[in-house]
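User: My collaborator sent over this chain with a note saying "see what the structure looks like." That's all I know about it. Can you take a look?
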Amino acid sequence: MTAPPRSEGAAKPELSDRARAETRLGQRLVAPAIVLMLVVTAFPMIRALYLSLFSYSLTAPEDREFVGLSNYLTALTDSLFWRDTFVTVLYMLVTVSVELVIGFVFAMVMHRVVFARGVIRTSILIPYGIITVVSGFAWQFAFSFQNGFVNDWLPFLDTDFNWFGDTTPAVIAIMVSEIWKTTPFMSLLLLAGLAQVSEDMIEAAKVDGATWWQRLWKVILPNMRAAIMVAVLFRALDAYRIFDNIFVMTSGAVNTESISFLTYRQTIEQFQLGIGSALSVLLFLSVLVIAWLIVKLFKVDLAAARQEG
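Assistant: Without extra context I'll predict from the sequence alone. Here is the result:
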């Protein structure tokens, strides 16, 4: 027995007047920012796309030659590009995962603490206010085997252990500096999400006998999904474009460079504008793919969250 065909109205429920009004308001609010971003970034993006189609070096500008997609083919068939892509993805996955856990703990503390709330929130957010280059130099000094304190604090290491002498410890050092610097940003976004969780729902769960873990998994986290998605999205895209800490701490040595650093080397150090522009375009496209994957992974439906639609 075949099921009756679904009507178009059932397949796509109509939005309420409030939802449509909020959508129009949101479009008007973001329109100036979108226009400004297009004005500021459109020319560099188009210029980079144009230069990526040429074999172009600043050391011999008169020899510029149109090569089509050859620069992209060169990048995608080079093992160095894929090695740096793997390292970049590793930076992103590890740092964002650790920051999400620690940032949530910090957000819970800032949300629940009553005594000296302002002092605690300010103390947690201090690392994010420090310039990345400054924090990078500080952590490079901390991990130094000559006069750093990390080796002294870890008894299972030799005092002369060189963190920057091999790939694995150097990557770990860079990740630690990145996590220390940007976890406050993650906690700030999660704190905003915690503020949206209804206390009445939490109290109702307590009355029903739910434990702390049950309240966390069944009430708090589901109602923070949108905030978690925004926090992960912003930090993942930022972590994928990591450059400052690598530049300061290792300068890309011992296989620690990212895609952004590879683009920098090709464009600024070697003056290869063609291949450097192609790498920039590939970096931009990969950022778009990552953003799309994160949005699809969380499947946040804001209309459903408002119980509308």
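A starting point for your reply to your collaborator: The chain is about 70% helix and 0% strand.
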